[in-house]
Amino acid sequence: MTDRQLLLFSAGLDSFPAWHYLGQPPALYVDIRHRYRAPELQAIAALADRCGINLTISTELDLSAWHGDDVIIPMRNVFLAMIASRHADAIWCIGVKGDHTLDKSPDAFEQMSQSLSSFAGRPITIASPFWDMTKTDIVAWYLAQGLPADNLLLTFSCTESGNASVHCGTCPSCLRRWIALANNNITTAEFASPPWQWHRVTDYYLPAMRAGRYPEHRAAELVSALATVGIRP
Ligand SMILES: [Zn+2]
To answer: Which UniProt keyword terms apply here (predicted)?
Structure first.
């Protein structure tokens, strides 16, 4: 027998607000043994304890050999959806506005829903409630509910910290985390190095933005976040 719905939970700045947004459904963390699992496990333990999340940790799958030179695990969300389908028919996997990786987009989730339904022999849906919201919008929604910012800061978003539970401040995940928090006037998030001083901001993001190679909404949110620390590109 399966639960009616299940949230794939990563302890990140998207899936924790999603847990509230979706009415606090059962959550599943799949420990696929990726490089930054230690701080993620610490964060989910802290959040589950603080908020009473009905959380299951799956150790059914070891994808550590699937890491490439970067942190990307190909087809990660396909694997996660397959594991989640053992527990639920309605699976929430959090993608946000502008996500367009091969295994995380509205079209990718529709294809997964069709394939898994066919292979499982029952209707299964993979969906995100946040395709029309940016991380900044999601944090704004969370705060507008009167939910505590402190809990938001227990989430973990960094992919380059190794086993440390401090956000490095110099990876794309940290930059996106800082932008979403800064644009919502949360200035107490800790980073080992200030994300706005990361060389990729001036070497890559701002030139790409000026050349029109960066989605317009993400460019606007980067500019407004930089303004909060006095940088006006
Ligand atoms: Zn980082």
So the answer is: ATP-binding, Ligase, Metal-binding, Nucleotide-binding, Zinc
